[in-house]
């Protein structure tokens, strides 16, 4: 690919991505409601009900930050359902493969779309948490720079991981079963309800295994940026590991997409 053809491919890539992003704004209010409904319920329960059962008063704030991660992951996954169905059925993506850009750009564009959709809406739990919990949600250690870094890297990972999930399964039903059997449990086992340090205090072996899975770094890095670094994994480790996982998953999904669509 020479410089001229690369510029043409980049222009087409940008146009395709913008066409997809415009659909987000078309359904803005529906997407906003989706980003508010579940976090509101969980923040209320974890902030006011669970402490009455003996959990720390700060548990609501802790799970509010968890909601930033899990909502991002689930919304990216929800967007991937349509891609999985298309690959298993009509394959309308074949049209984009006829345009003047390489197949890997077509594929990566879908992952970036999922990441952008995730990033636009899924910061809402922080705003809701502060409104609902008030002073119980201490944001005195919040760092905008650290949060912007870990949030953008996490959203990129969620988008690429959700995209990868569509090519490791061959049917839409298989994609749904993957969520029920593997992805859903890992979302919760990898830091939703407890920090890595707390898990290590219970089972060092299990906590060490969890370090080989990417979600723990999204949870720990986000808490580091919002609640402060004390008691959480260092931010640079979280960002570095998420970038590594993103690169590996992107490379794998491109190879699988090429094989699936018989690209050259």
Index terms:
264 residues; mainly alpha; 77% helix; single chain; 12 helices
Give a verbal description of the structure.
By secondary structure, this protein is mostly helical. 77% of the residues lie in helices and 0% in strands. It is built from 12 helices and no strands. Helix 5 packs across helix 12 and helix 9 (196-202) runs antiparallel to helix 10 (204-210). It has one domain (3-261). The protein has helices at residues 3-26, 28-49, 59-88, 93-97, 103-121, 124-133, 144-165, 172-189, 196-202, 204-210, 215-227, 235-261.
Q: Summarize model confidence as the mean pLDDT.
A: 89
**Can you summarize the main beta sheet?**
none
Q: Calculate the terminal CA-CA distance, rounded to whole Å.
A: 14 Å
Helix content: over 70%
Count of distinct structural domains: 1
User: What portion of residues belong to β-strands?
Assistant: under 5%
Query: Overall 3D geometry?
Result: globular
| Number of extended strands | 0
Number of helices: 12
**Cα radius of gyration in angstroms:** 19 Å
Unreliable stretches:
none
Give the helix/strand class: mainly alpha
Order of helices and strands: HHHHHHHHHHHH
Topology:
Blueprint: H1 3-26, H2 28-49, H3 59-88, H4 93-97, H5 103-121, H6 124-133, H7 144-165, H8 172-189, H9 196-202, H10 204-210, H11 215-227, H12 235-261
Summarize this structure briefly.
The chain has 264 residues and is mainly alpha-helical. It has helices spanning 3-26, 28-49, 59-88, 93-97, 103-121, 124-133, 144-165, 172-189, 196-202, 204-210, 215-227, 235-261. Helix content is 77%, strand content 0%.
